[in-house]
Amino acid sequence: MESAVKNAWLVIEALPEKLDLKISMMGQLDQHAPQDCILASNSSSYKSRLMLDKVDQKRRLRVCNMHYYMPPGNNVVELMTCGETDTDVLQFLKSKLEDAGMTPAIARKESTGFIFNRLWAAVKRETLLIMAEGVSEPKEIDKLFMTMFKDNPVGPCGMMDAVGLDTVAFIEDNYIQERHLDPTARDWLQKNFVEEGKLGAKSGKGGLYPPGETTKSSKDEGGHHDNLAAPRLYFLDIGMGSNITDMTKATISGKIMTASADGSNVRTLVSNQAMPDGIDVSISAGKLFWTNMGKSPSVNNGSIMSSNLDGSDLQTIIPEGKVHTPKQIKIDHENKKLYFCDREGLRVHRCDFDGGNHEVIIQTGDFNTADIEDQTKWCVGIAVDAKAGKLYWSQKGPSKGGQGQIFRANLQMADGDTASSRSDVELLFDKLPEPIDLEFENDSQTLYWTDRGEYPLGNTLNSAYVGPEDKEGGQVKTLARHFHEAIGLKIDAVNRHIYTTDLGGTVYRFNMDGSERKKIYETDGAYSGIALAHLH
Fold it and tell me: Residue limits of the 3-hydroxyacyl-CoA dehydrogenase C-terminal domain (predicted)?
């Protein structure tokens, strides 16, 4: 033994599960291994603290459990302290195991059975009890188990988050009452999560996982436990991509499309639209609303459209001639109002869901005059903060011109004001490359926008705090770059994600800080507006 371990940095004992043998072996290893050598036990049932009788006090900082699982093809290894193990030792071993292609996990405290064996013990115990009570038989149990968990992309924590932790607690409560089980786990869940509003994937506060990390893309298939929080996407193909071969029909080739949150199950809901640009969705009304810029932006022939969520019952709610070149559209869900910008029309409009009570609330010029040539007056993106009664909009400026602006005003005009002479308009940001679509996130009081301007500040996703306290000094943060004419923007407040589109034909998803950039869908289309809805 002495020669075998004299130069070792790690020794793992794997003797039969007899404690006296392990105590003796650990004592011998302590005598013969180098002072800085780590001594680990592969035991699955004994805590390494029980093997320390003959181990020097100094060595105990380098003693731990290091349990490999069977069969050998299983690459899971669990690490656990002996009660005195230096935490750096466990992190060091975790790193080395990862380098070797293993999947290590560190038990946060001493636990008989570590992590997985405790989980497996509960499965075994309940399986045996089901048979003991005559509820089912082995073949049926195994068939159900293998069917339910075959290719399942999440574990029990992700599955509970997807179902909803309030639902989990309710089910556990029923089991506790009927079967007289220990309520400790239910009580812990209720106190630390349910009462804090951390209900899982359906909650912006997250659950067992942090906000957004539970989201798994819906496959629109039965049997998936991770579908519940994934939104349905709705986005627009403006009709100008390379997928359009007959350019004489380009201006009437726009499409309203829908897809699962991973970009699968894509289908067209509505076709033959006149350059659709902005879209939003109302679940309560069961409606999609979108803007059509019209066959020619220089002509006053835009329109506002609606349909059911499946694309049926197509309606024109604001006809051609009543809006010039409508762009982004936003719903005020509380007041059941539509807000939309009118680029060459130099206006911001508001109306009811059926097009009634149509009014102009912002007017930057007269499109029947030379004003229409001044692109600094062109209104494009829009966001609504109904809670604070505020409206945000962008005026993009000339293409790649660096004259873009973002403004704010009240939803309701003051007495004596008109759409063209409002006293409450605030200029928030100036000299932007070319700001396009906007989104307002209420909890953080943050405004987000896409910009299709010139590099390096253009073709970006940006954000800035716009709340009542000037705590960031109006600082603009660039969250993501290198789009191909960035346009559409939508925040998934449930899962804390940002979705964007560009005219290069790509739908992207990001975390709220711009990290974890992912292409959800990419074709040779040209995508403008995007919306989403949680249909479950």
Answer: 113-207
Inter-residue contact 66 to 127 (CB < 8 Å): no
Query: Based on the number of CB atoms within 10 Å of its own CB, is 457 exposed (0-12), middle (13-18) or buried (19 or more)?
Result: middle
> Considering its fold, how many domains does the chain have in total?
3
Q: pTM here? A: 0.65
CA distance linking residue 506 with residue 483, whole number of Å: 9
- Domain termination residue (choose one: 107, 129, 144): 107
H or E stretch covering 342:
strand 337-342
CATH number at 7 reads: 3.40.50.720
From residue 40, give the alpha-carbon distance in Å to each of 23, 34, 65, 529: 12, 14, 5, 57
3-state secondary structure of 53: coil
Q: Are residues 79 and 127 in the same domain?
A: no
Encoded tokens for 80 = 């656990």
Give the residue with greater pLDDT, 281 vs 535. Answer: 281
The pLDDT of residue 174 is above 90: no
Asked whether the beta carbons of 513 and 263 are under 8 A apart, the reply is no
Choose among 376, 432, 377: nearest CA to 402. 432
CATH number of domain containing 361? 2.120.10.30
Is 476 a member of any domain? yes
Q: Is the pLDDT of residue 200 over 80?
A: yes
Amino acid identity of residue 536, one-letter, is: H
Burial of residue 125, with CB atoms counted within 10 A of its CB: 0-12 exposed, 13-18 middle, 19 or more buried: exposed
Q: Are residues 360 and 341 in the same domain?
A: yes
* Model confidence pLDDT, tens digit, residues 67-112: 998 887 889 999 999 999 999 999 999 999 999 999 999 999 999 8
